[in-house]
Specification:
Blueprint lengths: L7 E4 L5 H9 L4 E5 L11 H10 L5 E6 L4 H11 L3 E4 L5 H10 L4 E7 L4 H9 L5 E5 L19 H10 L4 E3 L8 H8 L3 E4 L4 E2 L2 E2 L1 H12 L5
Parallel strand pairs: 1-2, 1-8, 2-3, 3-4, 4-5, 5-6, 6-7, 7-8
Antiparallel strand pairs: 9-10
Helix pairs in contact: 5-6
Length: 224
């Protein structure tokens, strides 16, 4: 499902109401809120996730990033955090996706696919069957301590492009994006949306100058 329109912009690893407000002021489409993870940046408590989710206005999606793989645990976490989207950073089975959608009507389910090679294409097609969208990232679930996002690494965009073409749900592109490479990424992959964490941060804090530059480059990706 390739797109030629301006991609949606998701800013991940938001850690405070101030950061969320800054992102919203800069016309982003979605806010990513990271709950407990085995590794990676941006983790905040469920209490803070709830506080931030409450101030996000209509029209901006609130993503709960979860590493949980038990459906009941995910349902309880979403009900506590009250986001309108769940981003599953570890793999669930299609039947578990269906169970989540039945239990949480109106809540979007986005499954992360960590692009490691051409085998990720088949995996993405299978995982798209009962989800509302996919997010392509550069983690590694096979490590002793799993990497489930926030690595700052770029993966093979040609594989991502093929996934976008072959699935029938919206796809967000993540993994090592920054203001300098996002135009090229969009041209190659043609995703529904782009997702960024470390690429708009300085010393771990959201950098509004980098954020503005990133947003401007996404909005003007067809220039040059």
């Amino acid at each position: 499902m390739s797109y030629r329109l301006t991609p949606r912009i998701k800013i991940c690893c938001i850690s405070s109401i101030d950061e969320a407000t800054s992102a919203i002021r800069n016309r982003v489409s979605a806010i990513g809120l990271v709950s407990e993870m085995p590794s990676g940046p941006g983790v905040i408590s469920e209490e803070i996730i709830l506080e931030i989710a409450k101030i996000i206005p209509p029209g901006v999606s609130s993503f709960l990033l979860t590493s949980k793989q038990n459906v009941e645990d995910i349902i309880l976490q979403q009900r506590k955090c009250k986001t309108n989207t769940i981003q599953l950073c570890d793999t669930l089975l299609p039947e578990q996706h269906l169970e989540l959608r039945r239990a949480l009507p109106g809540i979007s389910i986005v499954q992360v696919v960590h692009v490691t090679g051409e085998e990720s294409i088949k995996e993405a097609i299978e995982l798209s069957k009962n989800t509302n969208g996919l997010l392509l990232d550069s983690g590694n679930q096979s490590l002793q301590i799993k990497e489930l996002g926030g690595t700052g690494r770029v993966h093979n965009w040609i594989i991502s492009k093929e996934i976008v073409k072959r699935v029938n749900v919206p796809v967000f592109l993540a993994g090592g994006l920054n203001p300098s490479n996002v135009k090229e990424a969009i041209r190659i992959v043609q995703p529904f949306g782009v997702d960024i964490c470390s690429g708009v941060r300085t010393d771990g804090k959201l950098d509004e100058k980098k954020l503005k530059q990133f947003v401007n480059n996404v909005l003007n990706w067809m220039d040059e």
